[in-house]
Design a protein that fits this description.
0% strand, elongated, mainly alpha, 2 helices, 64 residues, 48% helix
Length: 64
């Protein structure tokens, strides 16, 4: 995979990518849920921060 130099995007392409990322965030964090204070420790049974796990899934879905 070639990662440098980065390919330039037009303004329209950049907006489309931004809107797609926001759409993905809204699917994983409905309503005002994304405004929470975030992770305040490990979730019992999950043994990792729940919000961090959801953010990782957002990024995986957005940048598949």
């Amino acid at each position: 995979m070639k990662t440098f130099p980065l390919q330039s995007l037009t303004l329209i392409e950049a907006q489309q990518k931004q809107f797609a990322l926001v759409d993905t965030i809204c699917r994983h964090f409905p309503g005002a849920e994304f405004l929470t204070s975030g992770d305040l420790g490990l979730t019992p049974g999950l043994n990792q921060p729940r919000i961090t796990q959801r953010v990782e899934q957002v990024l995986a879905d957005a940048f598949h």
